[in-house]
């Protein structure tokens, strides 16, 4: 072919129908529907997206324009990079300062730490600590229940440093999110928000560049909410708090300038990226409905990696989870980001784990060059389509919540908690049956892990709602802040924070307690035939049982009933699983099970589902068929319970 012919040659445009035809051929009889995936958001993900899936009118949209789904800056991170705002944990102000100095010298770009009562044990030290940083770094602080005294300390530090040294960033709180965790507000609703608005008004005078209103969806995410629910909650909470400020005399421009939204980022990479893009779209349209100007409709987003997805056992895998979530957050277009350390859930975060977490973001900035690209996910047919579908579904849910009285009313009635609990139950069922994998937890568990059971910290409903001026005087006089705390009496059912791995972790800790009592959590595997015939199922059972902290001991190659009996007699285990091929099961399986249960008081299981004689297997003494669709959590719990009963009987 000549060069001229090559130039004149064109390729036929491939259609979705062409792809379907090729896919159907490769599936060899399986339906194409098997390639579609349903998510917890009730969204069906297609195996292929095309240009036709792009939302109408999107082709001309640029970052920093219109509904801001593509970001709030026209040049993306090139004009203003996101802030590395890893939250630091500490036991004293001195320790906090030391850790923060190290973090800031090693790449952190925002002042972020856990705000807790111990921070105010030495108020002079606290003010000195804040003053030492002046305006070098923005704040990234979820003040929670301690917003008023924190704002007071910040105001003192700012005044001592001089007005030229303005603090920036956010030291914000979301009273609705805090109420969701403890079951209510400390006082009557209107009374509370009148006082809170006064606090924010004083803070606006003292700290004009600091944002103070947080819309925090993290508690809902960590209770099991899906992306659609999180988005609807974000918009509903934003509307609720915005309306409270307007009702108490604030102008729309001022109120919006003080708001920052906070999201947790889960494990579904593209869903989480689309969630952040949809959030900006939804808030832009909502603010527009309130009459806000175009610049005032921008959503400032603080994000953090999910607690819901992290594990205690095999903690180094959390590095990979956090890295995936951090990447999704950056692609989604955030302004502040906390990457959790791999051992954060165990409460053992140290300089090493904090450095790894910080460097996760630094690698994305400096080595993956993500700060050099404006909206790197923009134009993706999949991401754009997912963004649109998330926004539409979230808006429907927001309208439903609004019809029930809005954000706080749906919490007070318990309706929202029920919706989230149902989604959490779906997650938990998938983890229990291993339909959803958690490496190192329900699959590929490492039985050599030495992990201590963490101490559960109770969430207490103590509020400080004095004015900023009053708190300034208290801090200056060193009076104990705790004297003016008010204990909240729950008025509705609070959210239940959880992690997906907790149910399996409880089994692992139960197994370790048995070991400390001198009882080895062990199950015997009766392996039928030569190794190549039983190995696959024996390996499967070993992996399944290890998720519950249970060790397995394999027999030799069992070809006769007497060989199986000899193995049982030599074992300390009282529970056994028969593992082999279907041919071995069919030849003498039920007879083997019947003989074992007739002569020995043991629990007997079968690996896989037999092709035939299932009822005969059951009557022969098989407790359960263990296979890929089994409820592993239920089986493991039953096995450990049996071991525990046996241990107590011996005692």
TrEMBL record:
Q: Which domain of life is it from?
A: Bacteria
**A single GO CC term, please?**
cytoplasm
List the Pfam families hit by this protein, alphabetically: MM_CoA_mutase
Example of a GO MF term: metal ion binding
User: Domain Methylmalonyl-CoA mutase alpha/beta chain catalytic: where?
Assistant: 39-113, 135-475
What are the entry keywords? Cobalamin, Cobalt, Isomerase
Q: Which cofactor does it need?
A: adenosylcob(III)alamin
**InterPro entries noted in UniProt:** Cbl-dep_enz_cat, Cobalamin-bd_sf, MeMalonylCoA_mutase_a/b_cat
| A GO BP entry | propionate metabolic process, methylmalonyl pathway
Give the family this protein belongs to, as stated in its UniProt record. Answer: Belongs to the methylmalonyl-CoA mutase family.
Protein name, please?
Methylmalonyl-CoA mutase
């Amino acid at each position: 072919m000549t060069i001229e012919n090559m130039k004149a040659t064109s390729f036929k445009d491939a259609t979705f129908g062409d792809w379907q035809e090729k896919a159907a051929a490769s599936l060899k009889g399986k339906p194409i529907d098997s390639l579609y995936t349903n998510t917890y958001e009730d969204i069906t993900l297609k195996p292929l997206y095309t240009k036709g899936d792009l939302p109408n009118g999107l082709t001309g949209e640029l970052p920093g324009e219109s509904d801001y789904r593509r970001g709030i800056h026209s040049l993306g991170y090139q004009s203003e990079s996101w802030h590395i705002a890893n939250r630091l944990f500490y036991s004293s102000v001195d320790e906090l300062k030391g850790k923060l100095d190290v973090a800031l010298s090693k790449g952190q770009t925002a002042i972020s730490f856990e705000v807790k009562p111990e921070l105010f044990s030495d108020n002079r030290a606290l003010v000195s600590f804040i003053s030492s940083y002046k305006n070098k770094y923005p704040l990234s602080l979820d003040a929670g229940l301690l917003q008023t005294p924190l704002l007071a300390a910040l105001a003192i530090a700012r005044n001592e440093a001089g007005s030229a040294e303005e603090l920036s960033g956010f030291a914000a709180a979301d009273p609705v999110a805090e109420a969701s965790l403890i079951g209510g507000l400390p006082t009557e609703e209107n009374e509370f928000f009148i006082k809170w608005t006064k606090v924010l008004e004083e803070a606006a005078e003292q700290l004009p560049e600091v944002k103070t209103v947080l819309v925090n969806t993290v508690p809902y995410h960590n209770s099991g909410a899906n992306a659609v629910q999180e988005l609807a909650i974000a918009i509903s909470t934003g509307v609720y708090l915005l309306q409270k400020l307007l009702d108490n005399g604030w102008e729309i421009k001022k109120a919006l300038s003080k708001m920052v939204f906070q999201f947790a980022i889960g494990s579904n990479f593209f869903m989480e990226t689309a969630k952040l893009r949809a959030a900006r779209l939804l808030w832009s349209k909502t603010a527009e409905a309130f009459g806000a100007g175009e610049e005032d409709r921008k959503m400032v987003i603080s994000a953090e990696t999910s607690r819901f997805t992290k594990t205690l056992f095999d903690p180094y895998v959390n590095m990979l989870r956090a890295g995936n979530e951090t990447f999704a957050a950056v692609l989604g277009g955030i302004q502040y980001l906390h990457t959790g350390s791999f051992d954060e859930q165990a409460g053992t975060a140290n300089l090493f784990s904090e450095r790894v977490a910080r460097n996760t973001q630094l690698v994305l900035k400096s080595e993956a060059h993500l700060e050099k690209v404006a909206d790197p996910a923009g134009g993706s047919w999949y991401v754009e389509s997912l963004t649109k579908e998330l926004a539409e579904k979230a808006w429907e849910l927001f309208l439903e919540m609004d019809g029930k009285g809005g954000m706080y009313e749906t919490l007070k009635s318990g309706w929202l908690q029920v919706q989230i609990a149902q989604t959490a139950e779906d997650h938990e069922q998938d983890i229990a049956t291993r339909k959803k994998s958690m490496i190192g937890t329900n699959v590929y568990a490492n039985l050599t892990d030495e992990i201590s059971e963490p101490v559960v910290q109770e969430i207490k409903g103590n509020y400080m709602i004095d004015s900023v001026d009053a708190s300034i005087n208290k801090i200056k006089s060193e009076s104990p802040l705790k004297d003016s705390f008010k204990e909240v009496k729950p008025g509705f059912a609070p959210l239940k924070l959880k992690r997906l791995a907790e149910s399996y972790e409880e089994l692992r800790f139960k197994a370790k307690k048995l070991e400390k009592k001198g009882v080895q959590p062990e199950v015997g595997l009766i392996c039928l035939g030569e190794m190549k015939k039983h190995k696959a199922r024996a390996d499967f059972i070993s992996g399944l049982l290890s998720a519950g902290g249970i060790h397995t001991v394999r027999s030799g190659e069992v070809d006769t009933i007497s060989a199986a009996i000899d193995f049982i007699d030599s074992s300390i285990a009282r529970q056994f699983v028969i593992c082999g091929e279907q041919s071995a099961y069919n030849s003498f399986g039920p007879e083997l099970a019947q003989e074992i249960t007739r002569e020995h008081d043991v629990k007997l299981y079968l690996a896989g589902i037999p092709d035939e004689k299932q009822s005969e297997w059951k009557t022969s003494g098989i407790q359960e068929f263990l296979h890929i669709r089994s409820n592993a959590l239920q089986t493991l719990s039953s096995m450990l319970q049996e071991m525990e009963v046996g241990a107590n009987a011996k005692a």
